[in-house]
Amino acid sequence: VQLQASGGGLVQAGGSLRLSCEASGSAFSINVMGWYRQAPGKQREFVATISRAGSIKYADSVKGRFAISRNNAKNTVYLQMNSLKPEDTAVYYCSAALYWGKGTLVTVSS
User: Fold this and answer.
1) In angstroms, what is the C-alpha Rg of the chain?
2) Strands 104-109 and 9-12
3) Is the distance from CB of 101 to CB of 7 less than 8 angstroms?
């Protein structure tokens, strides 16, 4: 399984970004897909996950601001990020089962 993430960039505080991650290869059997992030000097942390059936979990730090969604036909997971804060600055990684994407950088300026 290969994961290709996109959509990162530079945004001002209060702005929005949408991340996308497409899974290719033997992706049809993947149940849970999600997003994690790693800020400079910090450990990678959980952001959100979504199952094939649509069960969703969020980190407390992003509840009410981020929304994860999924298109099973396209093996793609999305992360809509609104009301972004400087502390959301990180490399965002897509995950699917035991696989990881390369990450996409999100920078939020104050």
Assistant:
1) 13
2) parallel
3) no
